[in-house]
């Protein structure tokens, strides 16, 4: 039996190598798990438009929104590992899965990681006329009056939600979560005074900070954001060691042949070096930067452990 199993494994490896040599030879699908027109969808289309030039075949982007990207992730996790069904995913992938009781895939091991395409931190922001001038003032108020300060997010389980919950957990404070159907409505809620603050993606909120509608208190990365160099990090302002970096990247089903992974990784690197692609991603608030497959896998695993810690320590769960 062991000889038969070894022969079968060698045959599969040979078939996989032969398939990889002819890759690609038909339409490729990029699936993404968020509404059309959103941040992840736009990034997927920017990448697809340029990558198909190098790969020599069309790439179609398909939206399958729901459960912070989990519906699309489950679909790709069950797809054939042939390189024709791929997933454009965001940092919500490890965050939602760590908090949800109903994810039907292994967050790290059911995928083959290709590369991150763009990194971006979040901005903790308030309305321009808010009484809070610093993040420390906001945290002190929350500590004095637990649950009194309201913050908005793009929905339960979104990375904007978990980022503030992590801030609350690490500072032993309590904020009141007000979920919205997307980031744009949450920003409107802050503008109308329905919420006190928000953790927002750099792309949508930075121009509104420059225009004076909102004021940034801190950035969630470990380094200051290039477009707002005077805004301190959360690490500098109030919570040493705090870091949340969001990202969007490319993955496939588990067991994707390494030659296909290497081809996709190389093509994504070429794409990110194209001036038009780089400027578009930067205009969305991103830091276009590729990784190795191993670096991306380690990033997902590390963030998954962070969010699992939050789920356990804060007793935060999504049904």
The overall pLDDT average reads 92
How would you characterize the largest beta sheet? 10 strands, mixed
What is the count of distinct domains?
A: 2
Q: Which strand-content bin applies to the residues?
A: 15-25%
What distance lies between the first and last C-alpha atoms, to the nearest angstrom? 44 Å
> What is the 3D shape?
globular
Content-based structural category: alpha/beta
Say what the CATH topology of the largest domain is.
Answer: D-Maltodextrin-Binding Protein, domain 2
Low-pLDDT parts are none
CATH class of the largest domain: Alpha Beta
Q: Could you say what the CATH architecture of the largest domain is?
A: 3-Layer(aba) Sandwich
Number of helices: 12
Q: What is the rounded Rg?
A: 21 Å
CATH homologous superfamily name of the largest domain?
A: Bordetella uptake gene, domain 1
The H-and-E topology, N to C, reads as: HEHEHEHEHEHEHEHEHEHHEH
| Helicity, as a percent range | 40-55%
Quick synopsis:
This protein is α/β, with parallel strands linked by helices. Helix content is 45%, strand content 20%. The radius of gyration is 21 Å and the shape is globular.
Describe this structure in words.
The chain is α/β, with parallel strands linked by helices. The protein has two domains: 2-120 and 246-313, D-Maltodextrin-Binding Protein, domain 2 (3-Layer(aba) Sandwich), CATH 3.40.190.150; 121-237, Periplasmic binding protein-like II (D-Maltodextrin-Binding Protein, domain 2, 3-Layer(aba) Sandwich), CATH 3.40.190.10. Helix content is 45%, strand content 20%. It has twelve helices and ten strands. It has helices at residues 2-21, 39-55, 70-77, 92-99, 135-144, 159-171, 183-191, 202-210, 234-237, 258-273, 275-283, 293-313; strands at residues 28-32, 59-63, 85-90, 111-127, 150-153, 176-179, 197-201, 214-219, 245-253, 287-288. Strands 1, 2, 3, 4, 5, 6, 7, 8, 9 and 10 form a ten-stranded mixed β-sheet that branches. Helix 2 packs across helix 10 and helix 4 (92-99) runs parallel beside helix 12 (293-313). The longest helix has 21 residues, at 293-313. The protein is globular. The mean pLDDT is 92.
